[in-house]
Amino acid sequence: MTRAHLQPAALAAAKRRPTVALLLCLALAFCLAVLSIQSSFFAAPGAPGRRLDLDAGDVRELAGFQSRVQQCVARRGLGLTADIIDHCKLVLKFPEGTNSTWFNTQFKIFEPLEYKYDVCETILLWEQYRNMTTVLTREYLDVRPDGWLDYAAKRISQLGADKCYNRTLCDELLSILLPAKPPFHPRQFATCAVVGNSGDLLKTEFGQEIDAHDAVFRDNEAPVNKTYAKHVGLKRDFRLVVRGAARNMAPILKGSSDEALIIKSLTHKEINAVIKELPNPVYLFQGIVLRRGAKGTGMKSIELALSMCDVIDMYGFTVDPGYTEWTRYFSPPRKGHNPLQGRAYYQLLECLGVIRIHSPMRAQRVEDWSAIPSKEEIRRAHAAAFRLKKHETGQPVELGPFSNCKVWGTVDPDYGPVSGTSDMSEARKNSNYSKWELLPLEKLRREAQEHYIQMGGVSLYKMDGNKLDDLVCVRHQHSSS
Length: 481
Known about the structure:
Structural class: alpha/beta
Protein name: Sialyltransferase-like protein 5
Number of strands: 18
Subcellular location: Golgi apparatus membrane
Membrane topology: Single-pass type II membrane protein
InterPro entries: Glyco_trans_29, GT29-like_sf, SIA1/STLP5
Organism: Urochloa decumbens
């Protein structure tokens, strides 16, 4: 409508209120300014002014990755199916008629037949493990705020106090298994076998295949001898044990003096007395409390292995349909873990490229890993999930290995690498630490050297809790530099 068509009264009113148009113009200008600021705030790195369009970019990337995971579960899940909820969440379901045998006495229910997972959170968690140190070190306690006062006390049983008010006493109790800095390096090994204790191992002959790996991880009192060699192999590199099993390690470790023993939870005087007589390197696993769908020492062994290995092959876990009881290959059946939830979570990890599952049913067919997303697909999905998480929390979108570092510290690289105390037995003094702690950088495989250089020699540690973004990061540089 033109000015000539306006009614005389309306035209007169417009003349009397010239400020209305001005206010509208100012309001429009303000809105444009706000949009400009928002666009700048959500701009992607390297592209100033371009709004981070999660719907068009990252959400589409994650949705495509979810489809790949769904296809992988369909091909490798032995009856499991994945129903996609959105670009991050899915539900793994067991087929109708699955026998739920495990009864939760706390909630008075049988184990459910479907489990919801957040793939974005899961991929962020497990890719983070590839850059982390999972062995407790002196530098971690020194750098972490109240590391000695608060955290060290949590790692010592029967201390008689909730804090290390007596630093000398706590140091004495921990020093026998406390290296000054990480004894192992990320990507130190190309292939690793994590061997559980399931009785399913007796249905297979994976022994030679297990021994062909660069490193083998075992749990608790699992025997390694000629009796079970064709089922579980003979190679021995790492053994993760709960503190109860740590007391019984002398006869178990006999014949393998360079098998590194890693205690899962706590130490105390009784365990230390055993350690002092062992000819094996002994360390303490850094306790990490994170909610996930599978529990137990086997899961912790995967965490430990992922911090050192490129490819993890998993053996001896009950992951095939038809579970009726928890069995071990070297002892009678007993009550134990909830099998269905564990099986579902391990299947999710395989389809996220974290592990490769080997089991009796899978042993009967030619292994084909093409269903598992490629490293490039995983890298892109990880980057998209990272940006999405930062967007949701309102944090700057800065990709990089140190984005989640909440605490920084610096130590001298010549900060005494070998664990131990002056009162060790002769056997302990001759422990084969040179295989681990004294290994120079130039003797590491190329991928481990490249990772060390990329990280600038910085070690990453996880703090307690369920957050992804609370790492302790330690630089290694000479005090004179």
